[in-house]
Structure formats: structure tokens, C-alpha cells
Design goal:
PTS glucitol/sorbitol transporter subunit IIC [Lactobacillus sp.], transmembrane, membrane, PTS_IID_sorb, transmembrane helix
Length: 185
């Protein structure tokens, strides 16, 4: 009976610890995420959807803007998974590369901008908790992760351009490099 009681006590302790963590988040990270979402929606409402669309179209013309600036802005403004929708403004040839860069960026920016990928926030918080126990600043780590991620996401997108070109060449598929956005008016 002693083992059953110890197991039940430990099992309930797991949920009690989870509840304490959840309440801690409600007074720390959840308000930050909520306010970042409000800011994001305010900026989009202020700029207007058409200006956001023009920005995405203009970003598709240059490799730096296509795999560094556009993924950053769309992740910050739209969050995961909506940030992937900005890829609709890119030519077909660049969509795989944009997806590669965007998918990585949604992970590498979570420490600085937790509203981008709240579904994976628990991963960052676990890492941050270990860093805090070492007496180190979590924002230093978050900024390094963001900056290294930004560069690596760009490289990933660019390498995917070459991979896409190779696959197209070897399979005989021709993907357009012209922007062709169809809007429902």
C-alpha cells in the first residue's frame, strides 16, 4: 500500500507542479504574448493589408529580403503558422526556399518574441530556466539564438534555391520566377 500511495502522491505532484508553472506563466509570459499580439494586429491594421502584400511582393525580388527580412516580418506580424501565407506572393520557384527559411525562423526567434510560436514556448522556457539557474542572462542567449538563426535561416533558404534548381533541372520541371498573385476581389 505504501508504494501505491507514493505513486499516487508523485502523480498528483506532477500536476500540482504543472499548475504552479501555469499560474507563473499567467503572471509573466502570457501578458507579454498577449500584448505582442495586440501590437502586431495594430501595426497590420495601421499599415493595411494591401501595404503588407506590397511589402511581400517587393521582398521577393532580392535574396536577402526574401530569406531574412520577409520571414522576420511575417513571423513577427503573423506568427506561426500564418507567417507561411506570405509565401503566396513569391514566384513558384522560391516557395520551397521561403518555407525552409520561415519554418526555421519560427523556432529561432521564440526567446525574444514568444508570440511568434507560442506552441513551442515550453521548449524555450525549459532552456531559459537552465540558463537562469547558471546565473546567466536569458536575453543574451535569446538574442544570440535569434541572430544566428537569422543568418542560418537565410543560408537554408538560399541552399534550398540551389536544391530546387537542381531538382527542376533533373526532373524537367519548369517553375516560374515571376510573381503572379491571384486575389479574390
Amino acid at each position: 500500500m505504501k508504494y501505491i500511495t507514493a505513486f499516487a502522491s508523485g502523480f498528483m505532484g506532477l500536476f500540482q507542479t504543472g499548475a504552479k508553472t501555469f499560474i507563473g506563466w499567467m503572471s509573466s509570459i502570457v501578458p507579454v504574448v498577449l500584448l505582442l499580439l495586440v501590437l502586431m494586429n495594430t501595426i497590420i491594421a495601421y499599415l493595411g493589408e494591401e501595404r503588407m502584400n506590397k511589402l511581400a511582393r517587393a521582398s521577393s525580388r532580392n535574396v536577402l529580403t526574401r530569406y531574412m527580412i520577409l520571414p522576420f516580418l511575417s513571423a513577427f506580424m503573423l506568427g506561426n503558422p500564418m507567417s507561411f501565407t506570405m509565401g503566396r506572393f513569391l514566384p513558384e520557384f522560391y516557395k520551397p526556399s521561403y518555407y525552409a527559411a520561415q519554418a526555421q525562423f519560427c523556432h529561432t526567434s521564440n526567446g525574444v518574441f514568444p508570440h511568434i510560436n507560442p506552441g513551442e514556448l515550453f521548449i524555450w522556457l525549459g532552456i531559459a530556466q537552465g540558463v537562469e539557474k547558471l546565473g546567466l542572462n536569458t536575453m543574451d542567449l535569446a538574442m544570440r539564438y535569434l541572430l544566428v538563426g537569422l543568418v542560418m535561416n537565410f543560408i537554408g533558404g538560399w541552399v534550398t534555391d540551389y536544391t530546387t534548381a537542381y531538382v527542376c533541372r533533373t526532373s524537367g520541371v519548369k517553375l516560374s520566377k515571376d510573381v503572379n498573385v491571384v486575389t479574390n476581389a
